[in-house]
Amino acid sequence: MKEFLLSQAVGAVHGTYHGDGAALLKRVRGVVIDNRKVEPDFLFVPIKGERFDGHDFIPSAYEAGALACITERELQTERPYILVKDSLSAFQSLAEFYKGLFDVKTIGITGSVGKTTTKELISSVLSQKYGVLKSEGNLNNQTGVPLTVFRLEDHHDVAVVEMGTNHFGEIRNLAKIARPDFCFLTNIGEAHIEHLGSKEGILKAKSEMLEYIKPDGRVFVNGDDPYLRTLKEARTDVTAFGKDPQNDIYAEKIKSKGLDGTDFVIHTPDTEFPAHVPSPGGHMVYNALAAAAAGLALGMGPDEIALGLAAYKTIAGRMCIETRNGITVLNDVYNANPGSMRAALDVLAYAEGGRVCVLGDMLELGEKAEQYHRELGAYAARRADRVLCVGTLAKHIYTGAKEAGAEAFCFGTQDELLAKIRGLVREGDAVLVKASRGMRLEKTVEFLLK
């Protein structure tokens, strides 16, 4: 981390400083919100969470050598601290200040589905030429983006920042921190529709990122998405990518290689070139096109882009494919919504042998949740030989699957599923496991692979 003065931190968060004035001239070596990660001369920012209040850990932060703490409470201590009204807002303001210390091209990524995969693919491509900082995992929320920014170093040329939301105003906060040069919007789907009301509302929330794009920046959208296409029609700074040849950047000659990925040809306004993405599914072509667009925007050539796409590696819980004991497990448990569920089932359809899907609840879908789950069941019936459903909402997946003629089974809890799953999965089967994060179906993946 690039060091800065404690006095600069006080100014950045507009706080009131308490403590020895000499400490203001000391340098902050790191910024953390986890007291277990405090090192000497770090700045600790306690955040109020659902289960814990970081303020309770201020004493341990000082014991670990914290230079100072940011706090919403007045402290009975002679140690330096900065008093603020809201520690989360202060954390974000400090991250905005820190980001301003660097001259790096910044790519912001948002959308209903595919944010993390697109982030990984863009990073894989850009890493062929540049020093890249990317969001770790899916650290894309109100604390995750600041934590990403605080990892910036002088050797980075590009920052690739994923931004997520389930409420209005959140993307705006994150974009204000990141100040993107390039904004990528992957698609508009049903994820978080419970809080954002409609797909129009989701588009509005995702588009908040554009409020803080650099003056000479550019927007990249999936031009095959009818909601995102409206941005192309309304703005002059938009590049569209997709499978439709009317897009600025498009793919053709798409050929599935089964679970080994997809071959295709990328067309740009200036050239065309072959590419391969080593992860299955037609949806991966869209993510790869976004990555190609990022590479082109930063002056990369076709060969560099193709190498970066081919070098892509999946991350935990994101369509990781592993074969053990004669069973191929498609581990896509990190999260789920109707769009990503359908895409995952399309991947399962590529598998040879028996096809089994283990599907759990999709959360935050609002009043149409039952309908979305029932429709998913009917879709699963066309892609899988056996449909195993687990959870409260998943009973509607079961209903939809049974009505569509599938061999389907329903379990109230994951433990009930695990007690029966050995008799429902056979050697030679491919098993897709997917649900919303709260279902914790990684336990099922571990059970199948052990």
TrEMBL record:
Keyword Kinase: no
EC number(s) reported in the record: 6.3.2.10
Job of this protein: Involved in cell wall formation. Catalyzes the final step in the synthesis of UDP-N-acetylmuramoyl-pentapeptide, the precursor of murein.
Amino acids binding ATP: 111-117
Primary residence: cytoplasm
Organism encoding this protein: Christensenella minuta
Record's keyword terms, sorted: ATP-binding, Cell cycle, Cell division, Cell shape, Cell wall biogenesis/degradation, Cytoplasm, Ligase, Nucleotide-binding, Peptidoglycan synthesis
Every Mur ligase central domain range: 109-294
Subcellular location: Cytoplasm
Family: Belongs to the MurCDEF family. MurF subfamily.
Domain Mur ligase C-terminal: 317-437
Biological process, per Gene Ontology: cell division; cell wall organization; peptidoglycan biosynthetic process; regulation of cell shape
Catalytic activity: D-alanyl-D-alanine + UDP-N-acetyl-alpha-D-muramoyl-L-alanyl-gamma-D-glutamyl-meso-2,6-diaminopimelate + ATP = UDP-N-acetyl-alpha-D-muramoyl-L-alanyl-gamma-D-glutamyl-meso-2,6-diaminopimeloyl-D-alanyl-D-alanine + ADP + phosphate + H(+)
One term under GO cellular component: cytoplasm
Name of this chain's protein: UDP-N-acetylmuramoyl-tripeptide--D-alanyl-D-alanine ligase
Xref: InterPro entries: Mur-like_cat_sf, Mur_ligase_C, Mur_ligase_C_dom_sf, Mur_ligase_cen, Mur_ligase_N, MurCDEF_CellWall_CoF430Synth, MurE/MurF_N, UDP-N-AcMur_synth
Any matching Pfam family: Mur_ligase
Domain of life: Bacteria
Enzyme class of the recorded protein, top EC level: ligase
